[in-house]
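Here is one chain, start to finish.
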Amino acid sequence: MELSCHEYKLIVESSPNMIWRSGLDGNCYYFNETWLRFTGRTMEQEQGDGWFGGVHPEDADFCMKTYLDAFQQHQPFEMEYRLKRHDGAYRWINDRGVPVFGAEREFLGYIGSCMDVTEKVEGMRLTEMAHYDRLTCVYNRNYLEILIDYEYKRIEREKGNAVFLMLDIDHFKCFNDEYGHDFGDKVLSAVASAISKKLRSSDFVGRYGGDEFLVILPQTSVSAAGRIAQRILEDCAALKIEDSKEKIGLSIGLSELKPGSKPKVVLKRADEAMFRAKRNGGNQFV
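Its structure:
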């Protein structure tokens, strides 16, 4: 038995999800009671692009572009953005929209369903804060140690390997002393970005200390690790920080973690190799 229009309306109005409907012009003409209770606004205030005024300014461009790109192609979309609640607080909303077609497959607009996912998003951000270095946006030392343990157990189980690269920025203290700590922070961020761009999706990089980074290369030969180290050196040497003409050099030490070897020992060897590279003049790997 098919549901009547009245029954469909009852389902939509009583839904815990915030539901909206747009027409052929892209403008929204309907919002259910859940949406209106959330925003504290009337149907008339939300219609057209009135609802868009409640989107957080930092999310507005992304939100509108996602919607319009999908609308032009008649494709489903999903996005998350912040929407102002009736009490003035911004809440993270998961918004899923799908195109609506008539009996003859003619395009009629969109219908969307939204949920408040603030707790999930904020929980994910707390997790990221626990795993990532805030300045460089690569893993922090605490999470690196978790990854090292994970790799150690994988290698023992699968009889594989991993190569550690310990990287230190040459003359970093001089950068701070001559140009200031803001310049030093920019060097750290630029180096972290350059390293990340040369790695595979299976590799890991993190900030191990002040100006030290650790790269973990699973299932990689020492010779292949050397090629990666060389590419990192070349990219960092090409970095331009502000108007400075300073060349960014790195001293890199390589060491292989194999079945039966201990991570602490391998890290120490990588650290020692890095210091040998530095004593040899820097901007090289050993």
